[in-house]
Amino acid sequence: MSHIINYRLNQFSWAVAAVLLLPLLFTQGMFFDGLTFSTIARNLNEGIGQFWSPQYTPFVHPEYYEHPPFSFAIHSVYYRLFGDQPWVDRFYAYTLYGLSILMIRRIWALLIPSGHRGWIPQLLWTLTPTVLWVHQNNILEAPLNAATLAVVWLLIEGTWKKNYLWSALAGILFFIALGIKGPVALFPLIVLPLVAVLYKEYRTNALISAIIMILSCSLLFTYFYTYVPDFAKFFEGYLNQQLLPSLRGLRGAESSVLLSLLELAKQLSLPTIVLVILAWRRGGKYPLRRESILMFTVAICATVPFLFLHRQEHYYFMPSMAYWMLAFGMLYEQAPWPWGINRKQWVKYISLTNLTLWLAAIVLTLYFSKSPSRDKHTIKAYHSMASDFKLQVVQVRDLNDFWKDNAIASRYNKLYLTDRAQPYFLIRLGGPAPEGFEVEATFEKAKLVLYKKATPY
Question: Fewer Cβ in 10 A, N or C end of the chain?
Fold first, then answer.
């Protein structure tokens, strides 16, 4: 009976994901970084920019060196398959969610004999706030997380089974992970040294696997840097314009380590509370074992570097969350209670809950597909400028004040904002009117006013 309950709880973990993610699938509007990445991917699909020289807009990052291009290239394939539809952006992120879950469960099955309890880390990870936010907003941490999880799984799989083809493949995926968001993908390098320390029986295998993985990645990098001039140009641009200035604290507003620690505590509050409850119910502590030590250490290695960055955002910690939840889940799993529950009514309760959640997910998805989206008034305003006034470029005084607007306009309407002189000028409602222009349209709900250059008499 306990196996049946675990089977139903596995279904429950997917039902929870459905009700939390699906309702937003067909809506427009995301965090502006997600809109920016979507625009770059759309441009690649349409032949605007090149793989090693992607373009955001003709006026903002015409050569985009802020992040490596691998995620944009993969995302562009979705546009080729499904067309330029708003839902494609979240569909891309949601497929990465599914891939991440697959990797989490594969890692769990390698380390824990009770593979049927893989729903534990899956549910914990799904309910982590930053995980939901990243996938709902198409942030680069979604593909980064999927890639690094695949690297960790392949490294452990290759070491356990002495199959070094997996290790070589891990090196290729490690190169791809670096090609998604740069050095923040380096933390999987700690996995095999930890395996060598914690699992003496696999020490030799881990050493060989690590060498093969590093060689595989290094050969790829050397080939591209030596024989692909565009790669070398991009790498130098990324290094000089984004990575080094960021490490020196020259980009973005300074953040507080204390605030980041509080954010991390918020993300880890659910598994910590569950652990306290289970320990209280058991009447004793949950001792650490080497599987959970392995995952906790990987999680710490994926977390700590961000605490020393000049700029810190909550979603930077997202790729570490999978390892935190695996580690907590491995602690929960080692005690008999509550996994030995043998009550038929629990199967009925869980089954009914699953059905209810799936129905709620379907109803909410249909409802929100017809309802206004995030930033609805701003989206409508720029749609009107593009369709009613046939505009492609609009002038603003300061692009920094229209950063999110630029993302919305370029993603959904191919309308680009610039601070260069144009026949049309856009200001915030209540702002000073530009000289030599007259009001063309006012978008009160979006708090925008469109001016047209006055015709001399």
Answer: C
Spatial contact of 142 and 97, defined as CB atoms under 8 Å apart: yes
Beta carbons within 8 Å of 354's beta carbon, 6+ residues apart: 8, 11, 12, 15
**For the chain, domain boundaries:** 31-342, 376-453
- Who contacts 258 (Cβ-Cβ below 8 Å, separation ≥6)? none
Q: Identify the burial level of 430 via C-beta atoms within 10 angstroms of its C-beta, where 0-12 means exposed, 13-18 middle and 19 or more buried.
A: exposed
Smallest CA-to-CA distance from 323 within 195, 199, 153, 204 is with 153
In terms of pTM, does the model score above 0.85?
yes
State phi, psi for 70 to the nearest 5 degrees: -60, -40
Per-residue pLDDT of the chain (457 residues; tens, 9 = 90+): 457 787 888 899 999 999 999 999 999 989 989 999 999 999 999 999 999 999 999 999 999 998 999 999 999 999 999 999 999 999 999 999 999 999 999 999 999 987 678 899 999 999 999 999 999 999 999 999 999 999 999 999 999 999 999 999 999 999 999 999 989 999 999 999 999 999 999 999 999 999 999 999 999 999 999 999 999 899 988 888 887 787 676 666 566 778 888 889 999 999 999 999 888 887 777 888 899 999 999 999 999 887 776 667 788 899 999 999 999 999 988 876 666 666 667 788 888 999 999 999 999 999 988 777 888 999 999 999 999 999 999 999 999 899 999 999 999 999 999 999 999 999 999 889 898 899 999 999 999 999 999 876 4
Cα–Cα distance for residue pair 70/76, rounded to 1 Å:
10
Pairing mode, strands 393-395 and 437-443: unpaired
Q: Token pair of 153, please?
A: 């799984």
> Is the C-alpha dihedral spanning 230, 232, 234, 237 positive or negative?
negative
Cα R_g (the chain), whole angstroms? 25
The count of other CB atoms within 10 Å of the CB of residue 268 is: 21
Handedness of CA 185, 125, 191, 175 (dihedral sign): negative
